[in-house]
Structures are given as structure tokens and as C-alpha cells.
Amino acid sequence: MQLTDAADLYFQYLRVEKGVSNETIKNYAYDLKHFFSTLDKHSTEDFLPTDIQDFVRIQSKEMLSVPTILRRISSTKNFYLFLEKEHIIDAQIRKFEKPKGAKRLPTSISIEEVEALLEAPDTSKAEGLRDRALLEVMYSSGLRVSELLNLKIMQINFEKGIIKIVGKGSKERKVPIGDYALEYLNKYIEGPRRKNPGRNSEYAFLNRYGMPVSRQYFFLQVKKYALMAGIKQEISPHTLRHCFATHMLENGAELRAVQEMLGHTNIATTQIYTNISSKRILSAYDLYSKRK
After folding, report:
1. What is the mean pLDDT of residues 255-268?
2. pLDDT for the residue 84
3. What topology is assigned to 3-85 in CATH?
4. What are the phi and psi torsion angles at 174 (to 5°)?
5. Topology of the domain comprising 111-291
6. Which of 31, 88, 161, 248 could pair with 253 in a Cys bridge, judged by C-beta atoms 3.0 to 4.6 Å apart?
């Protein structure tokens, strides 16, 4: 079978049966394309049991980051397992050693820095008001970047202050959204969005051409506002999700509640943020002790 046909079959399975988002499928497609070109694969008849093992070795020699290698391995391995399950290939994957890297805590910035970031957009302009709403909603609700940019107006309950999200694996959750976020979201939707070419679109956040705001554009905007806010740390849109979780826990929120709001399947994933909170609290205590 040609690789394009095999990949299409796999992506259809992910989309229909697993409820995987188009953005995630796009990332899988990129990883598989890289795998195919690296090992010079043209059809499923070319697959060997040692392919992933060889791929790991080549990727490691290229000095790529461990998270990038692990993501590409995962994409490729899941593709192979699908093809085996469908009896398209019979190449049993041999055991291989995954590259190990230092476990890094997610980046988090202080509440004061978050406030400076939120206030950076010029809300007198349509673009600035939209970006302020984007930043406020993400920090207020802890949504994933894909969930935020794919947010539809029908998912927002302004009366109850709730956003209904369909996250990974088509799992639905209801996330509370703060008053500030609702205020700016409402100002944007009732203001500049009504004049946007895509005002009849189901998506909440639109670019100047009426299309949903892209991940790349939002990433660049966050970088720009971080610079304007004087934030020296390297941050991304996902940093606001980290900050949401960290600041919630620092202010006494229960771990289970934060887990549900973030949409984590495993509470161990949420527990990472307790390490960040503890570290920051100890740092503050050290500073306090030195002043005495």
C-alpha cells in the first residue's frame, strides 16, 4: 500500500473513531512525513521491525531535543501499531530504548507579570481588544491553545460564566471563566467582531480576514506582548495555562478541581504544578527570611 493511502486511512481512524482534532492530526502528519523521508520509505512493503529503532538512532545523532524525538517516536509507533492491527503490515516492532532527558518543570511567571502581559494589548484597537480577550480567557480558564483558538460562540454561556469544552478524546468538560475574561470577551464579540468579515462565523476569535486566529499568529503575539510587559523569561501561549494551574493551587484550590478544569486524565500530570507552587513559595520565604 502506498504511504499516502496508509496515512489517510490512519488519519480517518483518528478523526472518526478517536475524536482527534485536525490540529493534532496535522502534527502527526508532519512527524510521519519526516520519518518516511529519513528512512526513505515509499510504501508499507518497505517497513521493517527495526525501523523505529533506526529512527531513534538517527534522530539522536541530529542533536534534536528529547521532547521532539519522543513526540516523533510516539507518532510513528502508533501508526505502525494501527497498520498491524488492520493487518496491513506484519512487521513486529522490536524493543528500543527511548532517549532520556532532564525532567523540566513547566514555565510559570508571577501574578504581577501575568497582569502586565494581560494589560499589554492596546484595547482601543480591534486587534488589541481581541488579543486582550484571548489572553484573559486563557489565563482565566486554563484552556489548551487548540481549545482556545477553536472556541465557538455557542460554547460560551455568558449568564453562568461557563465554557463547554470538548477536549482530547472527545471528552466534554465545563470550565468556569472569570468576570474579567467575560467582560473583555463580551466587549470583543459585541464590538469589533461585529464588523469583521467573518462575523457570521461560529468561531469566537477571528483574524482580520474573518478566519480563526492561527496558533502561529497567537504565539508571535504573546511573544510581542511579553516583550512589551518587560517579561524576561521565554514564554509561549501555553505558559498562561501553566500559570492558571500554578496560581490556582497557590491560592488554595484543590488538586482534583484543577485536574478537572485542565482536562487531565491522570492526576499525576496535574501534580507537576504542586512542585512549581512549592518551589515559588519556598523562594518567597527565603527572601522574607533574608529581610528579617
Report:
1. 74
2. 86
3. DNA polymerase; domain 1 (1.10.150)
4. -110, 125
5. hpI Integrase; Chain A (1.10.443)
6. 248
